[in-house]
Predict the 3D structure of the following.
Amino acid sequence: MRLALRIVAALLVLVIAAAVGGYFYARPLLETGTGYAAHNSCAVTLVAGRDDPETDLPDNPLVPFLTGYVNEAGRSSTSQILFTLSTQKAWYTRGFGCTVGADRPEDLGEATKVVHDTNPLSTAESPEPNPDVDAAIARAFGDGLGTVRAAELGTRGIVVLKGGQLIGERYAEGFTRETPQLGWSMTKSVANLLVGRMVHQERIAITDDSLRPEWTDERKGITVDQLMRGTSGLSWDETYSLGTPITQMLYSEPDMAGFAASQPLAHQPGTYQQYSSGGTNILCAVLTDLADAPDADLPRQQLFAPLGLTSATLEVDMTGTPVCSSYLWATPRDWATIGQFALQDGVWAGERLLPEGWMKASTTVTEVRQSEEQGYAAGWWANKKADGSLVDPQLPEDTYWASGHDGQRVYVVPSAELVVVRLGFTPELEADQLRTDELVAELVAIKPAEG
């Protein structure tokens, strides 16, 4: 009996040791999951003002084991696995959103006050009913699909501008025109506008290189333009899975730009195009180094205040650097304002804020030796590829758009004076199932009312 007990005890010790060892081996992977959940619950609750953060979690085997809470009084959220493991926290700062980290970020400075005086769209009345426009929007919401398939489509907000005027608008239940929504990688297109602001002020040029002091090898040849276009050559993996560079950067790294900049070269700069959130965050760190304002305030000072984007919040990492790859929250109307600003080539309220021709250059795809992308330009996606063919023949040649995770889109069609915003939560469908390209094509085809 004693021998049997000893054997059982030894086996139990081995099982516990294996479990502990397995946990510490998997901990970096698990912390990307708890980091995602902590950030999501913090931002959905304290930035967007909603009480249902669980509806923005992706379908993942880890989700059923996540536990946590939001401390609204303490302006933070906590997430862990089974109440004890891989704990991660996110901290809310007014004006700068939620930041994942062990402690609250410090020295972010005061957030520049933003008022809507220069943004007529923020206070515009709801548009008059237009049967053709409303029918196109209804199809993009999945009307007629049935409850289950419409929920899978997940459209939460659509705004349509024609000639700068609001002609169509609709929101899902639980969302209004005042509800900020996360643009995910549409933030990269906004980063392009921030670069344009700095170029216009002659603080930077797109040909500038030697962008990081630690880049003393071939990486010193990487230019601003290459970071915008995904041709830096830095090693990267944009796959949203536990433990990949993109998820490690967003949910485990206090200095996101520093982490991305530490990656080795996989390709000669300028020869290979690969979509990279890391490259965009390096770019924003370069911009903040040149700015007069505190790092976190750069987007508010340079873009949100001039455009009157009162709802816009671009979240920061623990160093205070804006996460320009992924974390801009704004109402659908403010996203539409960004699209209209692009359509007007950077002229707003009678003032030129971007270099003349900036948007044409930024939405022109350049030829590279090899590309993983279809129509990616400088932070914007373009319908016309480098060889002259179209990404989507049903859309006008000059169409370009901002695109984000889970189906976020801002389309700009200069030839039709059209801006179309679609926001939602669509983790299970492919891009061609969103009904957004069809929405834009329908809106382009609508004839203006006579008289």
